[in-house]
Amino acid sequence: MKRVMGAALCALLAGGIAHANAETKLTIATVNNGDMIRMQKLTDDFTSKNPDITLEWVTLEENTLRQRVTTDIATKGGQYDVMTIGTYEVPIWAEKGWLAPLDNLGADYDVDDIMPAIRSAVSKDDALYAAPFYGESSMMMYRKDLFDAAGITIDGRLTWDQTLEIAKKLHKPDEGVYGICLRGKAGWGENMALITTMGNAYGARLFDENWNPTFDSAEWKAALDMYTNILGNYGPPGATSNGFNENLSLFNSGKCGMWIDATVAASFVTNPKESKVADKVGFTEAPCAATCTGANWLWAWNLGIPMGSQKVEAAQKFIAWATSKNYLELVASKEGWANVPPGTRMSLYQNPKYLEAAPFADETLLAIDSADPINSTMKPKPYVGVQFAAIPEFQGIGTTVGQQFSAALAGQMSVDQALSAAQSSTDRTMRKAGYY
Amino acid sequence: MENKQTPLGYISFSVFAWIVGLLIFFPIFWMVLTSFKTELEAVSIPPSFISFDWTLENYAEVQERSNYFKFAMNSVILAVGSTLVGLVFAVTCAWAMAFNPTKRTKDALLWMLSTKMMPPVGVLVPIYLVFRDWGLLDTRFGLIMVLFLMNLPIMVWMLYTYFKEIPTDILEAARMDGATLPKEIIFVLLPMAVPGIASTMLLNVILAWNEAFWTLNLTTSDAAPLTAFIASYSSPEGLFWAKLSAASTLAVAPILVIGWFSQKQLVRGLTFGAVK
Where do transmembrane segments lie in this chain (chain B) (predicted)? Predict the structure, then answer.
């Protein structure tokens, strides 16, 4: 009897172990946005093709996610098998050896179809360290009806001076319309994303070849003068509180004549369920000034695998599924072509069905194609990134400088004072970090 | 001196109290209202008050996307668990300080409270490493330990204040009758301090329920409570107010009900010792 029970116990244990081996649970950390949520809803497609893999989603707000995954990967906590990370983190983490290279995405993955600008942003030594899920640049969205009424036509790429003149004409606060809406909320991913591209357009750069900050240059002065003038005088009241979502609300309510922000906004402002001006929106490239180089940013949310993960094979299978061309077709079949994650694959922009469903496709492609993280400034620079410098210190620098620029917009200090404060605080940080 | 209140004074005071009460309640009311709006209505300017198309689609979406009951159950386990563990330590600690004080007791109490003044992020990495090495990441046990330790100073302080109100003579009488130390605490001290213990427990449950730093940073899925549930509905790009409001309403509903029914004890606990 004892032998029978022993055998049964062994069989049970063996079965349990076999079951445990059969099922690999992937924990995926992600941000809460429409494309990511859609991916969660389509999980069944992946698990039906890979019955030995189960998916556990952890969705977090962007800043919480960044803090959470950074802590985990830096301490080798091993809590996540797949992480959603931005183009800022990928080169830094790849350099530190925190990310596993994606070298087994499958024969039909077609890595050459990934947009060159995005691919270079997530690669190191030609190896992919994260796969882009969706990408974006920045562009101008404007109200065609207000432009027509004011007799304004767009001929070629606008300059910031021309944009200022248009903002003056459109600005009618008594009628509830503000000339232009821009990001004013302080933060390296908020107002600094826009202001840095303005700086690039005016010929400025964050650091010179020797990593010295350059906020004391005439180019930065011109850029910040324009920013505080156009947004302070022809923008909505309380602009220092406005980030992407606040401006989206204003634009969708018909309060903004122009809005320069992420290309991903195009699908929101043209969606009649979300926007009161869905059929009145036009798109054009972000304005230039002394140059058009770096005048629009480049960002992508990517899926990466922490180094040391025990589930690299399963994680690569998942990443290959989520960032493949087949996934775009899956989304299109379930939710329509307008809802596929944009900005990562060139083939999407050659697909007539997508071009028909997304009236903003051409401008999005143009913007992403023209953003180059390596050559994004008029003068030479030592860092990678258009609207950021891919160094660990930039988050802190960007947030501090963003607060100083926001204070200048609010009138709490002058442009000169803000630039001087930005220069000294950045100089201190870089000195402490041992750059010089 | 007799303090007579005139009818006008009474009415003015009542009106003022109502205004303050409504102001405090308004954000919760607005959150509940927003949860029944569409995303477009939720951000429309000027905001619509009652006259909008009421919808339950946000609640349906939240239910579809997240397992609310799993998060809620974790919140209950963490809040109740950390409170019960904390009570065991806090009662004994407060007993010692209230009835057998030394010349260092006041300093010890102040030191305990001072630990609350350190920003939690300052010890995030060491705690994270300890949790990683001990296999406590994403476990309810680990979270209960952190929450109990975090709230222990407040529990000790509150119970100390209550115990100080209890005459030492009663405890001495019990000792004279042959009560051992555990019996003295369990059968004499605790029954007299029930209101104080109840309000301490309630406050601790609320603090543990609302804690959103450690619960977000030390959990992923298995032990994630309602704070993680709410955090998953904030979006950097795209409208999310209505869905976030629905998630928040679901998250605060249980604690709101508990707070409503136990407000008498809670107010007594929070104001105890303020007026003597």
Answer: 7-30, 76-97, 109-131, 143-163, 184-209, 240-261
Count of C-beta atoms within a 10 Å radius of residue A211? 19
CA atoms within 13 A on the CB side of B242: 23
d(CA A208, CA A404): 21
Partner-chain contact B220 A71, CB within 8 Å: no
- Between chains, do A67 and B43 touch, taking CB under 8 Å as contact? no
A32, A74, A275 ranked by CB distance to B234: nearest: A32
* Residue among A281, A289, A222, A293 nearest A257 (CA): A281
**Inter-chain contact B239–A244, Cβ cutoff 8 Å?**
no
C-beta of residue A282 within 8 angstroms of C-beta of residue A142? yes
Residue pair A85/A130 in contact (Cβ under 8 Å)? The answer is yes
Please give the structure tokens belonging to residue A366.
């143009």
pLDDT band at A238 (very low <50, low <70, confident <90, very high): very high
pLDDT at B232 over 80: yes
CA A153 to CA A170: how far, in whole Å? 13
Smallest CA–CA distance, residue A175 to chain B, in Å, is: 13
Average of per-residue pLDDT across A118-135: 92
Helix (H, G, I), strand (E, B) or coil at A221: helix
Interface membership of B84 toward A (CB under 8 Å): no
ipTM: 0.75
What distance in Å separates the CA atoms of residue B191 and residue A319, rounded to the nearest whole number?
A: 60
B66-232, CATH topology level: MetI-like fold (1.10.3720)
Please tell me which of the candidates A40, A60, A77 has its beta carbon nearest to residue B132: A77
- Chain B, 52-71: which have a CB under 8 Å from a chain A CB? 65
Residue B187, Cα to own-chain centre: how many angstroms? 28
| Cβ(A174)–Cβ(A311) below 8 Å | no
What does the pLDDT look like over B200-220, one tens digit per residue?
Answer: 998 899 899 999 999 999 998
**Residue whose C-alpha is closest to residue B234's, from B222, B224, B226, B242:** B242
Chain A CB contacts of B129 under 8 Å are 75
Look at B235 and A33 and tell me if their CB atoms are within 8 Å.
yes
Residues β-bridged to residue A124: A127
With beta carbons less than 8 A apart as the criterion, state whether A364 and A266 touch.
yes
**Extents of the domains making up chain A:** 23-136+299-357, 137-297+382-432
Residues in CB range of A370: below 8 A, 6 or more apart: A137, A285, A292, A296
* Alpha helix positions (H), A130-261: 144-149, 160-170, 191-201, 218-234, 244-252
Domain boundaries, chain B: 66-232
Tens digit of pLDDT for each residue in A419-431? 999 999 999 999 9
Query: Under DSSP, is residue A271 helix (H, G, I), strand (E, B) or coil?
Result: coil
Give the Å distances, CA to CA, from A405 to A187, A224, A227, A393.
10, 8, 9, 18
Q: What is the mean pLDDT of residues A119-139?
A: 92
Candidates A67, A249, A264; nearest CB to B43: A249
CB B142 within 8 A of CB B198: no
**B133/A contact by beta carbon, under 8 A:** no
Right CATH for A23-136+299-357 from 3.40.50.720, 2.30.30.240, 3.40.50.20, 3.40.190.10:
3.40.190.10
Task: Please say whether the beta carbons of A388 and A397 come within 8 A.
Answer: no
DSSP string, A273-284: TT-TTGGGEEEE
To the nearest whole angstrom, how far is the Cα of B121 from the nearest Cα of chain A? 10
Q: Which fold has domain A137-297+382-432?
A: D-Maltodextrin-Binding Protein; domain 2 (3.40.190)
